[in-house]
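Posting for a labmate who doesn't have an account.
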Amino acid sequence: MDLFTLEHVSKRYGDTVALAPVDLTVTEGRSLGIIGESGSGKTTLTRLMLGLSVPSSGTVRYLDQPVVPGRYGPSRLRREVQLVLQDPFASLNPRMTIGQIIAEPLRLLHVPGNRRELVRRAMKEVELDPAWASRYPHQLSGGQRQRVAIARAIAPNPRVLIADEPVSALDVSVRVTILALLRSLKERIGLTLVVVSHDLGIVQHLCEETMVLVSGRCVERGTTDQILHRPVHPATRELIAAVPSLPL
């Protein structure tokens, strides 16, 4: 089943083309990597998918329903599609405990069930001790904070997880454990993954399909194996050459 369908979607800011017309489908249970350097259009594309921005042309659909900011976007989409950002320290409220942080989307999205138990379950899914629910973000390491961010995202039981540079702010050794966690979550709870990164090494270990963006244009798309071992576009070959292999 196709969850997201984007048809001829583009985004302009005045005379600047942030995203040239692109077609994209995200299939349930699959994992897609969106690769490109800074300014390539990755964030613009995911903002359109999340209903946070209106396309200049084309249509964005989720489960065959138009994603319209202010209507379909911020309601059902907010529960079924969750986001994990790059910097866990910046994305977590320092005045809230870990338990409060994970419970916040449950409250805002009116998720039924015992919130304390849902928080406990989410913490166990990301391999955090539920007893830490009373701690604050500054009391945790960078990797532990990113696990909190992931727990917050999966607590409402979403269908899609969009991970925007999920490990780029972490030490290499910690990256390995977070990538392993994301792979495990995909398999255990049936997540559909969309991974945004400039690092092909990250996508190699998480995604079955890869799209390469350059200056707002999709220059190549295929299976990750094909992109990595039989790249067609020169920009893809440059990305491959520039990124060292991630030790896993």
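Reply:
Got it, the structure tokens are right above this. The first strand starts at residue 2 and ends at 13.
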